[in-house]
Amino acid sequence: xxxxxxxxxxxxxxxxxxxxxxxxxxxxGLMNRLSRRGGHFGPNFGIVEATIAxxxxxxxxxxxxxFDVSHQCYTHKILTGRAAAFFDDAHFGDVSxxxxxxxxxxxxxxxGHTSTSVSLACGLAKSRDLKGESCNVIAVIGDGxxxxxxxxxxxxxxxxxxxxxxxxxxxxxxxxxxxxxxLYRNLRELRESGGKAPCNLFRAMGxxxxxxxxxxxxxxxxxxxxxxxxxxxxxxxxxxxxxxxxYAPAETERESWHxxxxxxxxxxxxxxxxxxxxxxxxxxxxxxxxxADRRVIAMAAAVPVNIGFTPEKRREAGAQFIDVGIAEEHxxxxxxxxxxxxxxxxxxxxxxxxxxxxxxxxxxxxINSSPATxxxxxxxxxxxxxITHLGIFDIAMMSNIPNLVYLAPTNCxxxxxxxxxxIEQDRHPVAxxxxxxxxxxxxxxxxxxxxxxxxxxxxxxxxxxxxLALGNFFGIGEALARLIEEKTGTAPxxxxxxxxxxxxxxxxxxxKSGHSAVITLEDGILDGGFGEKIARYYGAAExxxxxxxxxxxxxxxxxxxxVLRANxxxxxxxxxxxx
Amino acid sequence: xxxxxxxxxxxxxxxxxxxxxxxxxxxxGLMNRLSRRGGHFGPNFGIVEATIAxxxxxxxxxxxxxFDVSHQCYTHKILTGRAAAFFDDAHFGDVSxxxxxxxxxxxxxxxGHTSTSVSLACGLAKSRDLKGESCNVIAVIGDGxxxxxxxxxxxxxxxxxxxxxxxxxxxxxxxxxxxxxxLYRNLRELRESGGKAPCNLFRAMGxxxxxxxxxxxxxxxxxxxxxxxxxxxxxxxxxxxxxxxxYAPAETERESWHxxxxxxxxxxxxxxxxxxxxxxxxxxxxxxxxxADRRVIAMAAAVPVNIGFTPEKRREAGAQFIDVGIAEEHxxxxxxxxxxxxxxxxxxxxxxxxxxxxxxxxxxxxINSSPATxxxxxxxxxxxxxITHLGIFDIAMMSNIPNLVYLAPTNCxxxxxxxxxxIEQDRHPVAxxxxxxxxxxxxxxxxxxxxxxxxxxxxxxxxxxxxLALGNFFGIGEALARLIEEKTGTAPxxxxxxxxxxxxxxxxxxxKSGHSAVITLEDGILDGGFGEKIARYYGAAExxxxxxxxxxxxxxxxxxxxVLRANxxxxxxxxxxxx
Lengths: 579, 579
What we know:
Distance between the termini of chain A: 62 Å
Largest sheet of chain A: 6 strands, parallel
Helix content of chain A: 25-40%
CATH class of the largest domain in chain A: Alpha Beta
CATH superfamily of the largest domain in chain A: Thiamin diphosphate (ThDP)-binding fold, Pyr/PP domains
CATH topology of the largest domain in chain A: Rossmann fold
Shape of chain A: globular
Largest interface: A-B, 119 and 119 residues
Radius of gyration of chain A: 26 Å
Structural class of chain A: alpha/beta
Number of domains of chain A: 3
Strand order of the largest sheet of chain A: 7-6-8-9-11-10
Number of helices of chain A: 22
Oligomer: homodimer
């Protein structure tokens, strides 16, 4: 059947039996890709029927469907000419895991962060109205994304549009983990009352509202979508779906099947992950701190497992762990409040999700010098590699905010020493980059006190050249130091800067004697980063400064080694550039 | 009466007559300060009684009151030992216009941006609970602030606290301008139904709810606050107040009296502002563009007048002007959607308010290369000078985001040429720094096409030294160039970089011949800024690089000339530093 579908027009005449058969066939394609490549399992399995119904009723791409996060867009891709990427292993690489205008005219935005669809769709609708055109604009947003400030701002504004906008709320009663926030009580009331509860978040936001009890029933969905098609008012269609629908392990273990690595479809099992990892180590460390001090509190924003807080560990932490849901702005402001009140908050999320909360880091946290700790995860070229989830911008974004102490550990022992110091001190907002990649241990002495700010650590005193190798790139610095010594006979000085947010001016001054060149290495873009501050410091001095890091660009689905080479970041490349 | 009030304890025994007399006396103090110094008139006049009632019922600072924005905290300051700053002109300088923990133990945070109070208060409440203490935590938030994502995230999360938190919603049916968003229809329903409408935004967020019809009646307020004191659940008290209460001009012209410059209390008139200003010029320019092209749309987020869109001009623009309310995240994402749909959006707000939307600039706008225009206002050391409203961080924040073209005009003609180019091009997201200060005109030729990116303009070809003077600091560059020529006999090269976001490498390469030093000047912090990129470029070259700009720090209530001197930014200081 899939071979006969080249565009959404090809499903328009289908009867219910055909639609159901199509759904089953699509799930086979999803299973084929997801079991071999991994990806967002639960969201895609849950929304098969709703996507079919959308394409049955609306005329994409004239009618414009904007998927929130767009991690649930696989069925949409299958129905819009990209089925091979799901059914034919050789074509897996043809598509990204998100909507992508470069792939298809049916995709309008490259997205991957949550809570953006309503605002983006409002923009499409406004343009349509200004140009005097007519079409349907549809935002598809999951219940988990509703707690994000951008989504709530968008829902609130949508009522002002006064023209066609259809917001499909795909309610599977789950965020990535369980939902958090008072609005989810209202969604439950709406589900339990068949949409009839008089208190209704969407109506309170000024929107029309319609309810579909079984969002996995194509006929019911088609009826509801047809009823709102060409509406002249912003309207919510609240559909209740089953996350992971059609695969028993995903229907029951919804959190672990939200995103899943490759697995055996028969058993649902993935190959065992051996060895240590920073997530589990971080969770263990924080639980020990919590038990010793009731004021210590770990905070997540919808991705608790990224610092090891599985459901079991969350229960163990009790009231000392909170997941605020998708609400990073709230998380940072609340962390500032907790710290101001004498608590010891540690808020962790991914590097690219911290982008949501620049203003709160600056205003709520740093102006107030609240001693909260931010743990910045997957902050590395070795982190996530989708264009929307890059971990290479946080140094430029965060390190230029006054009062913040941003630390870059080079190994496991240093990481936990920094984290421990941060939790126990009460003077500074502190961010720590969680090391990325395999867990690296050290025999080098590690300081336990970081309160004298901006003191870099000289790990090898040499001459001629000084290497300042920050955080995750310290290993490159070590290898480069060995190479320089081997090739030139003179060992360079090797320095672990530790502090991203300030210069060790006495040390930089000392380096002027006996050194003619400084090489900086950082795991992030060069623009606005650490190395440029060193270049500024030596701007008028005789010292030559070579900054190594990444080009300012949006990378997508890359292999880290390719990016390192493209940026001349191998020790051999650096050596041959300079010597 | 005021002389007898040293702390909130001194008003506890007051009867209704005394409370009313106190309110009248406080308004005299407010009028004294506001008419002479200017400030947030409407918010402070409207909340006198509610603040008195809060301090009558609760025991500050054991009970903790967190004011949103805190531009309405003047009565709170008067009642907590800081009355002199309102009644005695000699003491005006003792207090800031916002809450400030350095002034008083009754103030918990230094705030100034909207929509933060609920999250900050959640943090104080959580700390209280972790430590096993008991007190009331009260957030006071205006209706205008409710549309902000951070506030909506906070309201949604608050229901999860499960302990004491009192959220006073001060509803005066106004934002800075009129409110925008669907939730304001719900607030109206609640006002009109005496709080009894079954559809209730706050209940939909999982919160308890109580309504006070006359929020300027001390007795009604005291009754309501006493009823929720020591509650064990997050509870909203929705009070309806009159913005500008007690001063007829402010009660009727609520938008222009939200913030007001010094005025004559008898007439309500301020001294006339003579001459041109960039706000009115920007509005006029955009209106002309709109009339020529229906796709052009101006967007504001609650501060329309900052680009000259007075109520009259908004009516003139019709559907081509939108104010999204306090919702900067939505504004940028919607602008991206409008641009994707073929519209030509121009979104303007203050430099420090763009901080709210770092992620949307990066993800929604720049990853998608949507050709929207951002106008960054008061982006300068000459801009607003409160710690929470500084315009010196936007270069560091925005210029390191890939794909964004960030332009710094040096005068009026260049500004409008850049803006015009940005609106008409369809390839790049573009931000333009609105020049700050007096309108500067030029006879120099101004380019109309900026599509060949990163081409700096040499305005004077000289030798020895090259000055790269960015945007608002071009005038300093010109003065420095004259001084160097005068003192050394050799005219330096003077360059207007125009593009903040990229290097003119061919030009920088050329400068190596005939120049031994480059001086950069930028109106913003040095860290993460423009000059450091020049320093990096010349890191290994013979060129000396001197970066001039501002130190990375939170300034507060400063005189620009002091800050310039402290950062060695006068031409004389720079000359004596280098020559």
